[in-house]
C-alpha cells in the first residue's frame, strides 16, 4: 500500500468521506433512483409533448423544447433541493453520534480542513448527480428553443440553490447534538429560507395599500427578497422565457451571488464551530449582520426599481 | 516528526496550574494543580462526576479551561487559537469512543496517521508497529466494527499513539474489559511507561492501577483532594490509620474506655476484608453497649433489634479470652501510648496492638469521604 502521494498531502477527511460515500451500495442506489425519476419525467414530458404536437399541427417544436427544459429543471431542482440537506446534516453530528468526533478533534486538523474534506465529498457527489441530467438537458436543447446560455444559467442557479440548502444542513449538523435533531433542524432551516420570502410576499399582498401600489417600491422590495429563496432555482426557464432576457439573466445572476453569500456564511459558521464553540453572542451577531445585509439589499433594490415582475 | 521530548530531564513534562472549568453555573473542575514528569504514570481516581473527563479534555486541548494554565513540554497550551500545537504532543483516548464502521483496522490507523500529517513511509511503519504493539497484527485487515470491545479499545489506544506523542491521556481505558483484558491493558501501560511516555489515566478503581502508576491524584466534585505516590498518600493518611487491638478481657469494657478517648473512633465502616468485617460489625455493637453501660447486657430499650444484633450480643455476652477491636486513631505514637495507658489503667488487659494494612480502596474511600456528585 505504498502511495506515491507526497506533500502537500491529500486531505485525509476528504479521502475517508469519498471512500465512505462511494463504497457500498448507498451512493449507487441514490444515483440510480435520481436518474430513474429524471428519466421517467423527461420521457413523460416528451411523450405528452409529442402527442399534442401531432394532434395540433400548429404546436411548434420550439415550445416543445422549452417544455422539456422547464420540466427537467423543475424536477432536477426539487430532487436536489430535497436531497441537499440530507447530504450534510449528518456530517458532523454523525461523528458525534458515532463517537469519533473527539478523536478527530484530537488531531492537528484545522476546522477548515475538516469541513473542506467533508464538503468536498458532498460536492463531488452533487456534481455527479448534476452530470447525470446533462443528457436530458441536451434533449431539450436538440428539440430547439433553448439557448446554451439558458441551460448554463439554470444549472448555475440549481447549483447555488442546492449548495445553500446543503450549507444549511451543515450548519444544523454543527450545532445539533444528535443526527436526528440535526435532521429536523436542517429541514426547518431549509423551509424557513424557502418559504420565508414567500410568506413576506403574501403578507405584503394582504396589506390594504399594496393593491393600489402595484409596481411600487414595496412590491419590488418583496420580489427582491425572493432572490434569497432557493425555490427560485426551479424557475430559471420560466423567468427566461416569459419575460425579456437580459434583465432576467441579471436578476438570476444576482440571486446566485446572494445565495452564495448565504452559503458562505453557513460554511463559515460551521467551520468556526468545529474547534472551540462560537460564543453565542458571536453567532447571533454575525447572523444578525447577515439578515441586515439581506434586508438592505432588498431595500436598495426597491429604491432602484428594477424587477422582472 | 520526532516527539519533542527534548526538555531537560528533570523538567516536568506536564504542568497543571490552578485549572478550573465552569459549565454555566456548575463548577465541574476547581483549582486543580499537579505536575507529571517524563515517563511517569499518573492515575486520576475519583467517583462519577468527579471531573476526571473534564480535566483530561482540557489537557488534550479539546476544552478551554475557564481558569488556570496547562503547560506541556514547557509550552502553554492556552491562548493558542484552536490549540493545535498540543495535538502534536498529546495522544488522547476518550472514555466513550467509536469507530468508522466501514474501515479496516489498518485503514483506521492509517487515517489518523494522515490526520497527523505523517509521510507515507512513516505511516506504513507506524501502522505495522502499532498493530504489533497492541497485539492486533492478525486483525490488520478486519473490518473495525467486527472487532471485540477489548480489541476496539486497544485499537483506539494505538490510534492515540500514531504520532508518537510525549503525553498520553487515557480516559478509563480499562472500562468494560474482562479481567484478562484488564491485565493486558496494564501490561501495555507498563510498556508504554517504560518507553518514556508520560501517561495520565483516569479510573474509578485505585487498586487496579496502584501497581503500575507512579502517582495518584484523587478527585471528587471537581477538586483535587490529594496527590502523590501511593506510599505518600498512605503515609499521609496513617495518623488516622486503622489499628487492631487485642484484649484478654471483656471487650465491652475496652470499647467503653476507647469511647471516652477523643482521638479514637471504634470503626464502623472502613472494613478491610471479610474477616475484619466480622470484627467491624461486632465493634459496632460494642459501641452501642458502651453507651448503655459497662455491663454487656442485651440492649432492650433502644435500637430496633435485628437478628444480627442478637447474634453478636450473644457473642459479646460470653466473655472471650481473646477479643479484638478495630479502631481508627488520630495522631501518632504519643496518642497511641496514651490510649494504651488509658486501657491498662482501666484494667483492660491489652494483649496486642497492630496496624492494619489499609487497602487501597479504603484509602480512596477515606480521602473522598463518599461524596458523589448529585
Ligand atoms: N459539557 C458539559 N456541560 C455541562 N456540564 C458538564 C459537561 N461536561 C461535564 N459536565 C459536568 O461536570 C462534572 C464532571 O463531569 P466529568 O465527566 O468530568 O466527570 P468524571 O469524573 O469523568 O465522571 P465519570 O466517572 O462518570 O466519567 C459533572 O457534574 C458533569 O455533569
Ligand atoms: Mg469520565
Q: How would you characterize this protein structure?
A:
Chain A starts with 11 loop residues before the first helix and ends in a 5-residue tail after the last helix. Chain A has helices spanning 12-22, 25-55, 61-88, 93-98, 101-105, 111-143, 148-175, 179-206, 217-225, 236-242, 246-274, 280-304. Chain A has one domain (24-304). Chain A is mainly α. Chain B has helices at 52-59, 84-89, 105-115, 120-133, 149-160, 179-194, 206-210, 230-237, 251-259, 274-292, 307-317, 333-345, 360-368, and strands at residues 14-23, 26-36, 41-45, 67-72, 75-76, 90-93, 167-171, 198-203, 215-220, 223-228, 241-247, 264-266, 323-329, 350-355. Helices cover 38% and strands 22% of the residues of chain B. Chain B is built from 13 helices and 14 strands. In chain B, the strands form 3 sheets. Chain B has a 6-stranded mixed β-sheet with strand order 6-7-8-3-9-10, with helices on both faces. A 4-stranded antiparallel β-sheet of chain B has the order 2-1-4-5, covered by helices on one side. Chain B folds into 2 domains: 4-236, Rossmann fold, CATH 3.40.50; 242-358, no CATH class. The relative contact order of chain B is 0.13. Residues 1-7 and 268-320 of chain B have low confidence and may be disordered. Chain A binds chain B through residues 1-3, 5-7, 9-10, 12-13, 15-16, 19-20, 23-24, 97-100, 102-111, 275-276, and chain B through 57, 60-62, 64, 81-82, 84-85, 87-88, 90-92, 94, 96-103, 106, 110-112, 114-117, 119-120, 124, 156, 159-160. Residues 52-53, 95, 171 of chain B line the site of magnesium ion.
Amino acid at each position: 500500500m505504498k502511495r506515491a502521494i507526497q506533500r502537500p498531502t491529500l486531505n485525509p477527511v476528504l479521502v475517508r468521506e469519498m471512500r465512505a460515500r462511494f463504497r457500498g451500495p448507498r451512493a449507487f442506489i441514490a444515483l440510480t433512483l435520481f436518474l430513474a425519476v429524471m428519466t421517467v419525467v423527461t420521457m413523460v414530458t416528451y411523450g405528452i409533448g409529442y402527442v399534442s404536437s401531432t394532434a395540433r399541427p400548429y404546436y411548434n417544436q420550439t415550445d416543445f423544447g422549452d417544455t422539456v427544459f422547464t420540466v427537467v429543471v423543475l424536477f432536477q431542482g426539487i430532487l436536489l433541493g430535497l436531497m441537499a440537506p440530507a447530504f450534510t446534516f449528518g456530517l458532523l453530528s454523525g461523528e458525534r453520534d458515532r463517537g469519533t468526533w473527539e478523536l478527530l478533534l484530537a488531531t492537528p486538523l484545522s476546522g477548515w480542513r475538516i469541513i473542506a474534506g467533508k464538503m468536498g465529498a458532498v460536492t463531488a457527489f452533487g456534481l455527479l448527480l448534476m452530470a447525470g441530467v446533462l443528457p436530458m438537458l441536451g434533449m431539450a436543447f436538440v428539440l430547439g428553443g433553448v439557448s446554451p446560455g439558458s441551460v448554463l444559467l439554470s444549472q448555475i442557479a440549481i447549483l447555488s440553490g442546492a449548495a445553500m440548502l446543503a450549507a444549511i444542513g451543515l450548519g444544523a449538523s454543527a450545532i445539533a447534538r444528535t443526527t436526528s435533531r440535526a435532521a429536523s433542524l436542517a429541514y426547518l432551516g431549509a423551509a424557513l429560507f424557502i418559504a420565508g420570502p414567500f410568506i413576506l410576499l403574501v403578507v405584503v399582498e394582504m396589506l390594504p395599500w399594496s393593491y393600489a401600489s402595484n409596481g411600487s417600491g414595496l412590491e419590488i422590495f418583496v420580489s427582491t427578497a425572493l432572490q434569497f429563496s432557493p425555490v427560485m432555482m426551479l424557475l430559471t426557464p420560466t423567468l427566461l422565457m416569459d419575460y425579456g432576457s437580459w434583465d432576467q439573466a441579471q436578476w438570476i445572476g444576482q440571486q446566485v451571488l446572494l445565495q452564495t453569500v448565504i452559503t458562505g456564511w453557513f460554511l463559515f459558521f460551521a467551520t468556526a464551530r468545529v474547534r472551540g464553540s462560537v460564543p453565542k453572542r458571536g453567532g447571533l451577531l454575525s447572523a444578525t449582520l447577515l439578515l441586515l445585509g439581506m434586508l438592505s439589499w432588498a431595500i436598495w433594490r426597491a429604491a432602484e426599481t428594477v424587477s422582472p415582475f | 516528526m520526532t516527539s519533542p521530548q527534548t526538555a531537560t530531564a528533570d523538567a516536568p513534562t506536564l504542568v497543571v496550574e490552578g485549572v478550573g472549568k465552569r459549565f454555566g453555573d456548575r463548577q465541574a473542575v476547581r483549582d486543580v494543580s499537579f505536575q507529571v514528569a517524563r515517563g511517569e504514570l499518573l492515575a486520576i481516581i475519583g467517583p462519577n462526576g468527579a471531573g476526571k473527563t473534564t480535566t483530561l479534555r482540557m489537557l488534550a486541548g479539546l476544552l478551554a479551561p475557564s481558569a488556570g494554565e496547562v503547560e506541556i513540554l514547557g509550552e502553554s497550551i492556552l491562548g493558542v487559537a484552536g490549540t493545535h500545537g498540543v495535538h502534536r504532543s498529546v495522544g488522547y483516548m476518550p472514555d466513550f469512543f467509536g469507530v468508522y464502521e466501514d474501515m479496516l483496522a489498518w485503514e483506521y490507523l492509517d487515517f489518523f496517521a494522515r490526520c497527523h500529517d505523517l509521510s507515507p513511509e512513516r505511516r506504513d511503519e507506524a501502522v505495522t508497529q502499532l498493530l504489533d504493539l497492541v497485539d492486533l497484527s492478525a486483525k490488520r485487515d478486519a473490518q473495525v466494527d467486527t472487532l471485540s470491545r477489548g480489541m476496539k479499545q486497544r485499537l483506539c489506544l494505538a490510534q492515540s499513539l500514531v504520532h508518537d506523542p510525549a503525553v498520553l491521556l487515557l480516559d478509563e481505558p480499562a472500562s468494560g474489559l474482562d479481567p484478562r483484558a484488564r491485565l493486558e491493558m496494564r501490561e501495555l501501560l507498563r510498556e508504554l511507561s517504560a518507553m518514556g511516555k508520560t501517561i495520565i489515566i483516569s479510573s474509578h478503581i485505585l487498586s487496579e492501577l496502584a501497581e503500575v502508576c507512579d502517582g495518584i491524584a484523587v478527585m471528587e466534585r471537581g477538586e483535587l483532594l490529594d496527590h502523590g505516590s501511593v506510599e505518600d498518600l498512605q503515609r499521609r493518611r496513617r495518623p488516622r490509620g486503622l489499628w487492631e487491638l487485642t484484649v484478654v478481657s471483656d471487650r465491652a469494657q475496652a470499647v467503653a474506655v476507647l469511647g471516652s478517648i477523643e482521638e479514637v473512633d471504634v470503626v464502623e465502616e472502613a472494613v478491610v476484608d471479610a474477616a475484619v468485617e466480622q470484627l467491624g460489625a461486632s465493634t459496632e455493637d460494642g459501641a452501642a453497649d458502651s453507651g448503655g453501660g459497662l455491663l454487656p447486657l442485651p440492649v432492650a430499650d433502644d435500637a430496633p433489634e435485628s437478628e444480627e444484633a442478637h447474634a453478636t450480643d450473644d457473642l459479646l455476652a460470653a466473655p472471650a479470652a481473646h477479643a479484638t477491636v478495630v479502631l481508627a486513631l488520630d495522631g501518632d505514637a504519643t496518642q497511641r501510648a496514651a490510649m494504651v495507658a488509658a486501657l491498662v489503667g482501666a484494667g483492660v488487659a491489652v494483649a496486642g496492638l497492630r496496624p492494619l494494612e489499609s487497602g487501597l480502596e479504603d484509602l480512596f474511600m477515606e480521602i473522598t469521604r463518599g461524596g458523589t456528585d448529585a
